[in-house]
Amino acid sequence: MERPIDIQLEKLRNKLIKMGSLVDEQVDFAIRAIEENNLDLAITVIERDLNVDKYDDKIEKVCQKIFALNNPVAMDLRTIMSTLKINANLERISDLSVHIAYIYKDLGTKPAFFGSLHFSEIFRLVRQMLKYAIDSMINSDADTAKRITGVDNKLDELVNLDSKILINVMKNSADTVEQGVLTYSLLQELERIGDHSTNIGEEVYFAVKGESIRHRSEKSKENE
């Protein structure tokens, strides 16, 4: 027999899926703005951030309403708490996409040293991590959620490598410093999107399995 809370949780899930779709598009547009030298896409990312913020507020209010009108059992409580945390990470990813759009606007055009960095692969990894995060969320798929950590390790390696390359570029040519600093900020924002995607995967795993993989992920990074 379906409980009233089941209907409310399904509505909450649909809102979270919509939130994930909006954020996925924000990240894609921000990355494409750089790939295609497309200022219009960057401006679109900035303008659409308000829509994401509105969905963030809606999801928080629905969670509060479910708490107020029901007495959630353990599984329901786990779902609601994970939803709140996933929602917060999605909202943060949208903010980072906006930061990337502003960095692109400040850069103007891609500097000459851009070609010596690994942005094509970094963009691919970031997109992949967010896809895994959203797919695992939609399908309550713990196995897909676990895959994010392995991709995150690759992303961290490339960001660290490119950070070192950038430092050498700026050391050897003073006139590259301004663009170098902006490019370094771009790398950091992309890495943070990966981190928040990892957080989403961890919350999905917890919601599905009732256990945390966070400490296992941290231990894996320490051993490398």
What does this structure look like?
- With 224 residues, this protein is mostly helical.
- Helices cover 86% and strands 0% of the residues.
- The chain has helices at 4-35, 39-69, 74-107, 119-139, 142-172, 177-209, 214-223.
- α1 runs antiparallel to α2 (39-69) and α3 (74-107) packs antiparallel against α6 (177-209).
- It is elongated.
- It starts with a helix and ends with a helix.
- The model is unreliable at 219-224 (pLDDT under 50).
Layout of helices and strands:
Layout: H1 4-35, H2 39-69, H3 74-107, H4 119-139, H5 142-172, H6 177-209, H7 214-223
Beta-strand share of residues? under 5%
Note the main sheet. none
Structural class from helices and strands?
Answer: mainly alpha
Overall form: elongated
Radius of gyration: 19 Å
Q: Averaging pLDDT over every residue, what do you get?
A: 91
Q: How many strand elements?
A: 0
Low-confidence stretches: 219-224
Strand-and-helix sequence, N→C?
A: HHHHHHH
- Helicity level, as a percent range? over 70%
What separation lies between the terminal Cα atoms?
Answer: 49 Å
Supply the number of helical segments: 7
Short description:
Helix content is 86%, strand content 0%. With 224 residues, the chain is mostly helical.
Features:
single chain; 224 residues; mainly alpha; 7 helices; 86% helix; elongated; disordered C terminus
